[in-house]
UniProtKB/TrEMBL annotation, chains A, B:
Species annotation: Siphonobacter aquaeclarae
Lineage, opening ranks: Bacteria, Pseudomonadati, Bacteroidota, Cytophagia, Cytophagales
Domain Cyclic nucleotide-binding: 17-124
UniProt GO MF annotations: kinase activity
Coiled coil: none
Descriptive protein name: cAMP-binding domain of CRP or a regulatory subunit of cAMP-dependent protein kinases
Keyword RNA-binding in annotation: no
Keyword terms of this UniProt record: Kinase, Transferase
Claim: Transferase is one of the keywords in the record: yes
Pfam families for the chain: cNMP_binding
InterPro entries (UniProt xref): cNMP-bd_dom, cNMP-bd_dom_sf, RmlC-like_jellyroll
Alphabetical list of Gene3D superfamilies matching this protein: Jelly Rolls
Amino acid sequence: MSASPPSPAPKNHLSEQMKPLSEATQKAVFQVLQYQFYPKGSIVLTPGKIGECLYFVEKGLMRSYYFEEEDEREPREITAWIVAEGGVAMATESFYRQIPSAEYLEVLEDSTVFTLSREDFLELQRRYADFARFVLQFTEQYLLIYDARTQLLRMRSPLNRYLAFDRQYPFLRGRLSQSILASYLNMSYYQISRIRTQIARGTR
Amino acid sequence: MSASPPSPAPKNHLSEQMKPLSEATQKAVFQVLQYQFYPKGSIVLTPGKIGECLYFVEKGLMRSYYFEEEDEREPREITAWIVAEGGVAMATESFYRQIPSAEYLEVLEDSTVFTLSREDFLELQRRYADFARFVLQFTEQYLLIYDARTQLLRMRSPLNRYLAFDRQYPFLRGRLSQSILASYLNMSYYQISRIRTQIARGTR
């Protein structure tokens, strides 16, 4: 979104993505979308609730996270997903299986999003064949994003995970706290601090 | 597949999955599917080639793996996926993006599979609306499998990864070599040996 004025928010990302759809379909979709503003720090879904919405992020940043209680020590916070403008946030398993979420969905920057309820999402697919095709493409895109996420998580070296993330998401530079980034990259706060110091010193 | 006779192979899994489709669609799909037998040890895709097929596994076991060269030491073999009967094997990124594969697809047990070319896969979606819906459901299923895979990979404790895998895939017990399982669970051969010894001794 770079240098665009903050208000009125341009409805660009989703409109662009839906351009291949017929005018009738686009109109039907925008009729049921809710355009919403969430201030930084909002929690739009908590564990135990069922994820009933997709969040198409127009501007801002969201993440999903949960606490893993692997052992007797303090539960560890894990960031599962980070979604910026142009992406779609959801509690994947909860949304598709309609079971209680294990995750929080949190707004990390003041954000404007289009929300689409699951009910409307399914109804639009039934009524508009081109929307159903759009959903398939979108789901395939997500499969590839997941594929890249598993590749990153399989890297043994914390430094390599850090560098791979930086290559994949250059537009997130400087937008994440060190602790959130560490919890996304499956490393400790101490490890990420050390890596950043090494990079700053040019020793890596 | 348990106690079923080895031959003629029952064409059960895919037929079951396609039952909701119209007879005409099912017929069109089975006309273009190739029913193939691959002996244990076959490599059906190598790095550098483009993944042109989906492999619907009727009986047997496949995996995808690659070598990660993270540092100056020996490249580490990583098992990305393990797919048994009822599942679909593919080189995800290569198949969807039509770029050279980074992975090997290997047959781990004598396997019978239906292969479907990407061309036929796309053509069937264009011609049969119910097949397009079937593909969307199948892709959503895969998203959930990927979601579970990322959850497993984010677990810090090797023991917990081992136990979570065992819970998710009880039907794979005893079918994977220790080194392949270790490479799937992102741990060393030494770590998995120790875990198995602990479990056998009942100290875990």
